[in-house]
Design brief:
Blueprint lengths: L6 H16 L6 H8 L3 H7 L3 H25 L4 H18 L1 H12 L1 H18 L9 H19 L8 H15 L4 H13 L2 H19 L3
Helix pairs in contact: 1-2, 1-4, 4-5, 4-7, 4-11, 5-6, 5-10, 5-11, 6-8, 7-8, 8-9, 9-10
Length: 220
């Protein structure tokens, strides 16, 4: 006999689906309550606001990024190129979809979600950039990540569309790799490889794969 889904799990499942279908900003607590036929009091018993659920989704995004990096490593892609591809795919997804842009940008604007991003990306930076920052302390990696997150947020939340996506991506990747002491020649090679890819198609594909991953993870 199938286990009955708990109310808390239902709220997470429906909310995350709505965030990725309609946009985080466009999804209200009332919309979730109406679909689940529960009261707002029932909702807030488990979550004080929809930001709490965005944090759950951000944590899933971080786990998805780790899995993606592990898969790409298995396909022969370096961790450094994988990190570059990740920002490229997010930026191109934001360019193509307002829903994707609203989701990604919202994670950087929420203090709770940003803390999750900082912790996750600091851990990954220690692994990816170890050879270039061998004498760095944990505090230095943390400080670098705060700078990098600011660059990522600005890249994803581009307002002036007169600056081509290619220019924003290459500029952001160059700035990020410079922070982590990656030599200029290696920076150029990685950026050229990323820009040579069909990044708009890759961005759509990876965002759709993330939605499928979330649906699978939320199949309580």
């Amino acid at each position: 006999m199938a286990k009955k889904e708990k109310t808390k799990d239902k709220i997470i499942r429906v909310s995350t689906r709505m965030f990725l279908e309609h946009g985080y900003s466009a999804t209200t607590v009332q919309m979730v309550c109406d679909e689940l036929e529960i009261s707002k009091g029932n909702y807030t018993f488990y979550f004080s606001s929809k930001d709490d659920i965005l944090a759950v989704l951000t944590d899933l995004l971080c786990k998805f990024q780790w899995k993606l990096m592990e898969y790409e490593a298995g396909e022969g892609m370096s961790s450094l190129l994988s990190i570059c591809l990740e920002l490229m795919s997010m930026a191109s997804a934001c360019e193509e979809s307002e829903v994707a842009k609203d989701f990604f940008v919202s994670t950087y604007q929420s203090p709770k979600c940003l803390e999750i991003i900082h912790n996750n990306d600091t851990a990954r930076a220690k692994e990816v950039f170890a050879e270039y920052c061998s004498d760095w302390t944990d505090e230095q990696f943390r400080e670098a990540e705060i700078l990098v997150a600011g660059i990522e947020h600005a890249t994803l939340n581009a307002i002036d569309k007169t600056v081509p996506l290619e220019t924003r991506i290459s500029g952001a990747l160059n700035a990020i790799m410079t922070i982590y002491n990656v030599p200029e020649e290696i920076r150029r090679i990685k950026i050229d490889k990323v820009l040579a890819m069909d990044y708009r198609t890759i961005g759509k594909r990876i965002f759709n794969e993330f939605k499928e991953y979330v649906e699978k993870e939320n199949a309580f």
